[in-house]
Amino acid sequence: MDEIQAHLPEEQNSFVGRERELAELRQVxxxxxxxxxxxxxxxxxxxxxxxxxxxxxSEFPDGVWxxxxxxxxxxxxxxxxxxxxxxxxxxxxxxxxxxxGDALRPRRMLLALDNCEHLLDACAQVSRHLLTxxxxxxxxxxxxxxxxxAAETIWRVTPLSVAxxxxxxxxxxxxxxYEAVRLFADRAAASxxxxxxxxDNVAAVTAICxxxxxxxxxxxxxxxxxxxxxxxxxxxxxxxxxxxxxAGDRSAGPRQRTxxxxxxWSYELLTGPERALFRRLATFTGWSLEMAEQVCADEEIPAxxxxxxxxxxxxKSLVVxxxxxxxxxxxxxxxxxREYAAARLAQAGESAAFxxxxxxxxxxxxxxxxxxxxxxxxxxxxxxVDVFRRYDVDGGNVSQALHWCLDQGDAEAGLRICIAVxxxxxxxxxxxxxxxxxxxxxALDSPAVPARVQxxxxxxxxxxxxxxxxxxxxxxxxxxxxLCREAADGYWTAVALNLLSEVALHTGRIDxxxxxxxxxxxxxxxxxxxxxxxxxxGTRAAIAxxxxxxxxxxxxxxxSVAAMQRIDQQWGAARALLGLGDLARFRGHPxxxxxxxxxxxxILREIGARPxxxxxxxxxxxxxxDLGAIGQARRHLTRSLRLSHATGARIGVARGLExxxxxxxxEGRPELAVQLAAASAAxxxxxxLPPVPGARIESYLxxxxxxxxxxxxxxxxxxxxxxxxxxxxxxxxxxxxxxxxAVxxxxxxxxxPAAxxxxxxxxLSAVSGYEVASAPPSSLTPRELQIAALVASGRSNKAIAxxxxxxxxxxxxxxxxxxxKLGFNSRSQIAAWVAERGQGPGxxxxxxxx
Length: 850
Known about the structure:
Blueprint: E1 6-7, H1 19-31, E2 34-38, H2 45-56, E3 64-68, H3 78-86, H4 96-104, E4 109-114, H5 120-133, E5 137-143, E6 152-156, H6 172-175, H7 179-191, H8 202-211, H9 216-224, H10 231-236, H11 241-244, H12 259-268, H13 272-281, E7 287-288, H14 289-296, H15 303-315, E8 320-325, E9 328-332, H16 335-347, H17 351-373, H18 381-408, H19 411-428, H20 431-442, H21 451-465, H22 470-486, H23 490-506, H24 510-527, H25 530-546, H26 550-566, H27 570-586, H28 590-607, H29 610-626, H30 630-647, H31 650-666, H32 670-687, H33 694-708, H34 710-721, H35 725-733, H36 782-792, H37 797-804, H38 808-822, H39 827-836
């Protein structure tokens, strides 16, 4: 086709990205006669349309034609503008639209109408007539809202791709995968020759693109600022983006030269009620129709009109329709548009009123959801799942309300919201976020806050502290218990007692754990409190397991499952199922353990319970190791450790490192096994957790000593103790699969020490630089090993004393030391350990152990 038939304006710079959209739009043009590209100002509708027109030009013998309408103010001139562009002359005494229709009837052409939103009725009328008159005509329009003509296909133009929130963009090549970063790099290089995205600025550029929602106009305006500012300075100034992003193309129209101008254009086209709702919706980070009706409606905007007004804002591309959650449509604004709407809300003097209304709504709904989620009111499990899923999308609104409470010094409302949403923080493992909010509100000087609120909030803060700081959790739980007792709040008193029992269990104080659990159980049963009853039964099961009473532990865990199922609180039931899985694994029944873990995992995934999903995956990994499925074990343990690390749960990370130590033993990596076991021990000590029983430590060290020798193991242990937990996690996760033929540590030792193949273990060349450390804490002395063997042979303390020519008291003290080091409480356990010594890593965390 002759190039003159593509009647398109010259593109001023390169087109970046949107390869997928271009391909799909070409296909859509084959299936529809009217295609409208919709989106907010600055999203790139015009540039995308021009590129589609250019790519499709060869398919239209009578050409592609581009008609710009942005500067047109009179609706009756739309047909005249089209005729002028195509070159059709008006006939005297005949309506121009009829002449235009007749002239286009024989043609096969593609006509584009750009910027139709301010002339919608006229554009729709003209489009209908032309499409009816000219069967070979294809129409492509760009508009903030649809034309609403017959057979119109609406294509929502989305922002350019950006790195997801939380993603680390330290690698330039990774960042360049995102269209927004490529656009910034291209336009910045045009503004300041020599500019490039590299290791020094990639994080800042990625942050800029994400903050600007991937909106092309905003990114181009930001990129132009590199003439005077670094990328880091631009990123730091985006809090006032409308003042910063003003240096646009002087040849463009006013609304394309500044970010504010682009959105002003859309705002000015709204009706009065649409403007009012648009401003008020800036109060939300995202919302449902029901939320908008409750927070935004008043005498000016009746609740019955909110649906229609919301639909209008969606049509005008100022509100984005998101996927449904729990059967409700969800809406949001792009951050840039939301910031503009918030400024308009402030100008109208309405910010304080609607932030207060949002706070009241969040508090009311959060407390209702707490009652449903924790089974304080009857309801099906599906309703409880919805509580957790709803918080997933409304967490931003909760943060908005909490910020408002903190700004106003409203401690009581802030604490009540924190208490109500705390199950979601616990389930998702976002304990740090919740703990910081509670710390801030509890620090306010607010004597008027009722003791019941103070007490419950202190207990919740203790719950959130437990995964990372059991010592702080103990102090807070004790303080909260006192306040709850004073307030005669039976539910939270039972929660505090259950928590104290769990803390005591984690820190090795079994008798204290039992006393608190028994009192919690008594209170819960008397009050008909199913949650705390099931919680206490589960803790008592763990206590029984710690005491070696496995049959009793199984009965109590089964009773805990039943109590939780009776109130249809399957999250609580899943926690008890995890305990049953641990028990079955400890008793040597891997198939049964696998079944319990799988059942629990399905429930936990429903609500996204990350810490407990991590624990469940760790159990499945241990089962896989027991069954010799090492590859599957590595996959489960990798996902488990990553989850624990992501949630900041030091308990989970310590367990995960120890599990990887066991895995390294199975894979024939003695150096890695020792180093990870030591890193786990160091993290336990730092977190205030009880040490790993000596028998488990020995299961990693003894096989390594046979291969490496005592001195090397001591050096490796010292290296592991000095390894920060972050580095230890990286060490565990970054190991490649072992080479074929690697000797597992639970196999008979080779005749001579063998080196681990290159690449199989961590970088250990520096280990020789350590001084030889004292023996690892679990090591038995030669004398204690001798006495352990005598115990295994059935000798009494007196017989041992006679054989070794030592006093009876000395023999007894040696036996007591052996039990303490190995974590045993009976001579039969010593005998079993001696019999099995050197036959491979132990089973790891037994049921109920920290």
